[in-house]
Amino acid sequence: MKIACKTFLIVPGLLITISAFGYFFWYKKKFNEQPRNNVFALTEKKDKDNRDALVRLYQKVLPAKDYVYGNGFNASICFLIDMRIPSGKKRFFVYDLKNDSVEIAGLVTHGSGSDNDSDELYFSNKPNSYCTSLGKYKMGRSYNGKFGLAYKLYGLDKANSKAFDRFVVLHAHNCVPDTEVSPFPICVSQGCPTVAPAFLKRLQTYLDKPGKPILLWIYY
Question: Cα(160)–Cα(64) distance, rounded to whole angstroms?
Fold first, then answer.
């Protein structure tokens, strides 16, 4: 099902991998702690896909910290979306930068144009491509659009510099379930990161707090 989302509105690779694994083992105990009520916790599992997802997450945490500190963003929380995780699994992570833990996670769509009849997704910054664009975003102000509550997104990288002009925003849609449905995929959008209505309400508690903007990073 495709949903519309137009609304008005060097380090060498080896060193990165070593650092990521070092970070994983350093915080291994924290990620294995029993989660509090209503808190999503990543845990170490034996399956390769989960280990790979953890490594990708840790590879983004340290650069994200450097970016938020150096560019005037919220230094407590950031949003990380791993588009390599299948859409039927939780891949939108609210990451606590102070305590190095995932607070909550939810399902999120990718753009219909990113599906290319293979296991790999395709990403683009082109208008009318209906693709997801990778890169860092600044979360903007909220407004009421075609799908109700939505948040403007400002692309900060060359790969997503046209996000605002493409009307790529964070919003909710009823086609996105609250719980995982893997191995089945969820609906697709026209490029917007679209979440379940209940999950957007939880994100709203972070986004509507006064203070510095929150960083969103979509990676693959």
Answer: 17
